[in-house]
Amino acid sequence: MKFFVDTADIAAIAELNDLGMVDGVTTNPSIIAKSGRDILEVTKEICDLVEGPVSAEVVALDADSMITEGRKLAEIAENIAVKVPLTWDGLKACKVLSGEGKMVNVTLCFSANQALLAAKAGATFISPFIGRLDDINLDGLELISDIRDIYDNYGFDTQILAASIRNANHMSDCAKIGADVATAPPAVIKAMANHVLTDKGLAGFMADIAKAGIKIV
Ligand code: E4P
């Protein structure tokens, strides 16, 4: 499973990228607003840092304007994936932009039917939002599983990009189901390294090292 980082925080992206943990980056208007930076400028900086796809989202609601914005975003760098919302206009924009050879990430997906439409419209990525479904007592992971079945049944090559990931368990659950990509905030990716028994085991080793005076260099 590929790891995308869901942030516009350059330092956080760079830290994970140096460890080989970054296969791509996703942003959305809320993330860009939080960064306090110009969307074109910060997106260019991310594209210069990361080799994989960098999702940048349109802000218009009608298809023609989304297409215009998508073309402008795609000029930033070759690794831009234009992000469009899963509305009828978003699907129209997806069809046109993917037809021009641009990567398109269709976002705000909350049902298997929406994912089916995005694949038919030529999406490179479909972004089902796990956490926001869980927030309203629905099952985000079940949606990932349903989309996996549907795409496999018909051989769609649209990649399932599990989004709205809130904790480290979501990451391993998505990997078990067979999501192609999971995008998560840097803190969630780092939390994957944590285990209470690792901490306990290390504390025990450190105590014995001190007692025995073990040194390597
Ligand atoms: C994905 O592309 C979105 O930017 C993101 O995962 C949304 O996550 P949230 O529901 O935590 O805002």
Automatic annotation (TrEMBL):
From the UniProt record, which GO molecular function terms apply?
aldehyde-lyase activity; transaldolase activity
Q: Give the residues annotated as active site.
A: 83 (schiff-base intermediate with substrate)
Annotated PROSITE patterns: TRANSALDOLASE_1, TRANSALDOLASE_2
Q: What is its EC number?
A: 2.2.1.2
Q: Which PANTHER family match?
A: FRUCTOSE-6-PHOSPHATE ALDOLASE 1-RELATED, TRANSALDOLASE
Task: Please tell me which top-level EC class this enzyme sits in.
Answer: transferase
Does the entry feature the keyword Transcription, yes or no?
Answer: no
Keywords assigned: Cytoplasm, Pentose shunt, Schiff base, Transferase
Per the record, its GO cellular-component terms are:
cytoplasm
* The protein's annotated pathway: Carbohydrate degradation; pentose phosphate pathway; D-glyceraldehyde 3-phosphate and beta-D-fructose 6-phosphate from D-ribose 5-phosphate and D-xylulose 5-phosphate (non-oxidative stage): step 2/3
Alphabetized InterPro entries for the sequence? Aldolase_TIM, TAL/FSA, Transaldolase_3B, Transaldolase_3B/F6P_aldolase, Transaldolase_AS, TSA/FSA_arc/bac
Annotated catalysed reactions: D-sedoheptulose 7-phosphate + D-glyceraldehyde 3-phosphate = D-erythrose 4-phosphate + beta-D-fructose 6-phosphate
Q: What is one process in the GO biological process aspect for this record? A: pentose-phosphate shunt
Q: Which HAMAP family match?
A: Transaldolase_3b
Q: What does this protein do?
A: Transaldolase is important for the balance of metabolites in the pentose-phosphate pathway.
Write down the Pfam families for this protein, in alphabetical order: TAL_FSA
Note the superkingdom of the native organism.
Bacteria
Q: Member of which family?
A: Belongs to the transaldolase family. Type 3B subfamily.
**Does the record bear Ion transport in its keywords?**
no
SUPFAM superfamilies for the chain: Aldolase
Where is this protein localized, as stated in its record?
Answer: Cytoplasm
Name of the protein: Probable transaldolase
